[in-house]
């Protein structure tokens, strides 16, 4: 569908939904080159399509432990789950819900002051100055850096802004060419992006609260100066008129998920950065035309400029006609020192440039730091980065050279269940000057093009990838409604996948830095009662327990996996709100999911982050009241500032819904789900 058709299609009720639907048009050139034919030859396309594979073929495809033989399953029931809690009922309404016996308290909301000198929130009189000291919009990643038991710095990403529910009287802007956007509104949006770092304290009553008086509290925004580090630092492609050295960039944008390093710094992933860039050079159909740009191939592969925000109308650096290199300076992992507000954040180009969903870290058994990161685009890739040196006491600090030197790998999922991690190293294989990669800087900037050249496996939108115990990693593949039957491959087995799946990786030798491992599909998501969906769960999973569109995930101290979902406007297909689920990875209950928390209507669930010895769980409810509200029975229209589907969490008639962080604790104290 053409861009304009999607923008005006009533199915897409807000800009974010239209953006998601349009902007993920695959730019990967390798789609004719998948291994789908292998699977089709072996099992027959119709069988794969209809989810009707026999047990032997299914075992070969999805791994023996993904299926539990009925006899063995009978020995284990849902009551034997390692996650001890009574499952929540499923549904979707204007409030959030938590399993019985737990509290889920709102900790901080969009607009809440987070520094001592921040003004109180005044939703009718927003300013960039106030917003830059208040909690930002659309909280996604949540991390926690402990100072002492019961006290630490909360680190929260602010992914994007929804102008139609954020600003009074404005309405949706992509349909009008952003005619309502003023510089003042753009500057508020820029201040609402980035991240928030602030102290939180657990009181004697077991309740957490924000301490806005800690002088280390700060906002990181789309205007915060940051240092560029790694192979692309100072490269001519990183230079702009404002920064002729190519060493300093203003701001970070579309920070989706992230991670915490072993030394307690906060990693912010830059995801859909392309959407913020503008151009006035349009083709006959009104789409950006980059054909005259010297870096046209790279811009096309990254979707730059997206023109989903009006920033480039007021700030030349976001207009590629005026500042073509600025977009090369976004799409990285940013490191922030949560303890030192004067420490300039660092963009680590060694970790590559793509639509980084997250940056979850672990120390491999050989002592090196490993960071997993998905490129969240239909048919894009899964990456991991391995430091050159092992983690030592000396290099365990902010700005450590550890994050400057290492090897970035991209994943090839072979149909025999082996995963090969292909190194993105200049001079190796096709990554040579002959093929357009003059140095490692070109690989850092054009990571996608380099990964294309290596033949990585095009995936169903890789979201969070979480290292687990013993060399395991869990990869959330959220959905991919554009995969055709011809493009199916072993690791992405369903065409037109609306519900997503989760892959488990076991790195060789239990060592996360290994260049090889094995993989299998842990669950195929969606409703197991509908054969055409082709879902695969442990048979003990209840009607409330199955889910769709896994996005973020976490591993608690006990090594147990938790998954949060983002169905976007697709929740109408399941009738379920987004939420948090436990997902068993071991034993006879492997593949068994249980619902623990659910979002108010229109919101996606982010975080999750376990802290405080698993006694505290931080969750982020992003964009409450926005997505798919036309499917919300009784409401059935798009939300606006004046008329939202929910006014969560305040339920104040003068306040729109507010993205907020929720803190979950057990009533009476104790570890969660134990
Ligand atoms: Fe921002 Fe990939 O979700
Ligand atoms: Ca996400
Ligand atoms: Ca995670
Ligand atoms: Ca998502």
From the spread of the alpha carbons, the general shape counts as globular
Largest sheet descriptor: 9 strands, antiparallel
Q: How many strands?
A: 31
- Please give the share of residues in helix: 10-25%
Strand content: 25-35%
Low-confidence stretches: 33-73
Ligands and ions found: MU-OXO-diiron, calcium ion
Mean pLDDT: 93
Q: Order of strands in the sheet with the most strands?
A: 14-15-17-18-19-24-23-22-21
Instruction: Using the CA coordinates, give the radius of gyration.
Output: 23 Å
How many separate structural domains?
1
What's the total helix number? 13
| N- to C-terminal distance | 49 Å
Structural class: alpha+beta
In words, what does this structure look like?
It comes from Dinoroseobacter shibae (strain DSM 16493 / NCIMB 14021 / DFL 12). Residues 209-241 are annotated as: Disordered. This protein is 13% helix and 27% strand. With 674 residues, the protein is of the alpha+beta class. The protein has one domain. It has a nine-stranded antiparallel β-sheet with strand order 14-15-17-18-19-24-23-22-21, with no helix packed on it. Strands 9-8-13-12-11-10 form a six-stranded mixed β-sheet, with no helix packed on it. A five-stranded antiparallel β-sheet has the order 1-28-27-26-25, with no helix packed on it. A hairpin with a 5-residue loop joins strand 5 (194-202) and strand 6. Bound molecules: MU-OXO-diiron and calcium ion (3 copies). Residues 256-257, 357, 463, 551-552, 566 line the site of one calcium ion. Residues 159, 256, 271, 357, 376, 463, 551 line the site of MU-OXO-diiron.
């Amino acid at each position: 569908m053409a861009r304009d058709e999607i923008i005006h299609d009533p199915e897409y009720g807000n800009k974010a939904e239209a953006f998601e639907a349009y902007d993920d048009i695959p730019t990967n050139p390798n789609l004719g080159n998948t291994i789908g034919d292998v699977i089709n030859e072996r099992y027959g396309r119709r069988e794969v399509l209809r989810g009707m594979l026999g047990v032997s073929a299914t075992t070969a495809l999805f791994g023996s432990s993904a299926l539990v033989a009925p006899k063995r399953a009978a020995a284990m029931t849902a009551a034997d789950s390692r996650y001890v809690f009574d499952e929540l009922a499923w549904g979707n309404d204007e409030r959030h819900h938590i399993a019985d016996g737990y509290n889920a308290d709102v900790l901080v909301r969009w607009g809440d002051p987070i520094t001592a000198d921040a003004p109180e929130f005044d939703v009718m009189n927003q300013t960039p100055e106030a917003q830059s000291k208040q909690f930002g919009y659309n909280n996604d990643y949540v991390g926690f850096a402990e100072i002492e038991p019961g006290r630490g710095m909360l680190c929260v990403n602010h992914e994007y802004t929804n102008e139609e529910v954020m600003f009074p009287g404005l309405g949706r802007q992509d349909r009008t060419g952003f005619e309502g956007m003023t510089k003042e509104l753009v500057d508020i949006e820029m201040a609402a992006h980035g991240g928030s770092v602030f102290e939180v304290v657990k009181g004697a009553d077991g309740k957490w609260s924000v301490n806005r008086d800690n002088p280390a509290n700060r906002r990181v925004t789309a205007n915060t100066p940051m240092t560029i580090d790694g192979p692309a630092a100072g490269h001519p492609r990183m230079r702009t008129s404002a920064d002729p050295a190519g060493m300093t960039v203003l701001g970070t944008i579309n920070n989706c998920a992230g991670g915490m390093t072993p030394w307690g710094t906060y990693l912010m992933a830059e995801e859909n950065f392309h959407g913020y860039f503008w151009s006035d050079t349009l083709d006959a159909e009104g789409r950006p035309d980059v054909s005259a740009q010297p870096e046209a191939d790279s811009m096309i592969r990254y979707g730059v400029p997206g023109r989903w925000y009006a920033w480039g109308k007021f700030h030349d650096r976001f207009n590629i006609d005026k500042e073509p290199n600025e977009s090369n300076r976004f799409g990285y992992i940013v490191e922030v020192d949560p303890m030192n507000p004067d420490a300039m954040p660092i963009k680590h180009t060694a970790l590559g440039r793509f639509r980084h969903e997250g940056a979850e870290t672990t120390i491999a058994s050989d002592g090196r730091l490993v960071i997993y990161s998905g490129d969240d685009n239909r048919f894009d890739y899964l990456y991991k980065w391995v430091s050159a040196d092992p983690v030592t006491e000396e290099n365990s600090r902010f700005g450590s050279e550890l994050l400057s030197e290492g090897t970035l790998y991209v994943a090839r999922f072979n149909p025999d269940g082996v995963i090969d991690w292909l190194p993105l190293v200049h001079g190796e294989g096709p990554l040579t000057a002959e093929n357009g990669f003059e140095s490692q800087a070109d690989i850092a900037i054009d990571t996608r093009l380099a990964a294309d050249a290596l033949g990585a496996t095009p995936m169903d939108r890789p979201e969070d990838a979480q290292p687990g115990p013993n060399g395991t990693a869990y990869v959330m593949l959220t959905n991919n409604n554009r995969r055709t039957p011809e493009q199916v491959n072993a690791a992405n087995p369903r065409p037109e996948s609306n519900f997503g799946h989760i892959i488990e990786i076991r790195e060789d030798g239990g060592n996360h830095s290994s260049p090889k491992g094995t993989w299998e599909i842990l669950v195929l998501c969606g409703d197991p009662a509908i054969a055409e969906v082709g879902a695969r769960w442990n048979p003990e999973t209840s009607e409330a327990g199955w889910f769709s569109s896994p996005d973020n995930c976490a591993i608690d101290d006990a090594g147990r996996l938790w998954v949060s979902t983002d169905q976007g406007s697709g929740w109408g297909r399941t009738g379920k709100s987004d939420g948090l689920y436990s997902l068993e990875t071991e034993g006879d209950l492997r593949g068994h999911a249980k619902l623990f928390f659910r979002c108010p209507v229109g919101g996606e669930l982010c975080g999750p982050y376990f802290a405080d010895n698993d006694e505290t769980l931080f969750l982020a409810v992003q964009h409450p009241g926005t997505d798919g509200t036309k499917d919300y029975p009784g409401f059935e229209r798009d939300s606006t500032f004046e008329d939202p589907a929910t006014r969560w969490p305040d339920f104040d008639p003068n306040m729109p819904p507010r993205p907020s962080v929720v803190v979950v604790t057990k009533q009476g104290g104790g570890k969660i789900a134990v």
